[in-house]
Amino acid sequence: LMALGGAMKKIERYLTVEVRQRLHDIDRGHKEIPSDGIIWVIEASTTQDQRAVKRIVQQVISVFFASAHQLPVPLIFSIFRLCQHPEYTHPLIKEAEAMLKLPPTDHYKNLPLLESFLRETARHDPLDSLSVQRKVLRDFTFADGTHVPAGNVICVPRQAVMRDSKYYDRPHDFLPFRFAKEHGVGNDVNQKFTDLISHFYLWGATAKPW
Q1: Which value, in Å, is the radius of gyration of the alpha carbons in the chain?
Q2: Mean pLDDT, range 56-74, rounded to an integer
């Protein structure tokens, strides 16, 4: 979508050398290949176009930068919110203690209050105002008549959508247990932090957002 700056070009050069070496080692059948993010991207690239060196490098850079802020920043905001609202600390600790009494295989699978707290923090304090950026490759007209010429970049107004009263009651209020069934506002099911729906764009868009 955008031209690479000096630092990004340097990262791209280093990764290009490494990706080429990894592909060479795989083709040669080498067994001692590191298991890391680069290999994961290569293994997920199944077609000839996907296994192009430039494409793999771009995917690795995207994953690196996404992992550097997509989870740490909501965690920092969550700690900040806990400091602002210490009254929610006790129910969260109580839930965690109850979870730890379950068999290890069930750990972290049933924490609706924590899931809701993280999800509401991400909704109320989104990382970016915009999300799901896409470059228009050919002229496109939406169902409502909006026309977008090729070459433009369109995106979803993440912050506006996640604070829209059309989708959320009291959208400007921080309601930590909004997404928990027993405590939520208009929810009949528990919603996890990682759940992907059309008006919660922390993780991008659904397969068919429109």
Answers
A1: 21
A2: 81
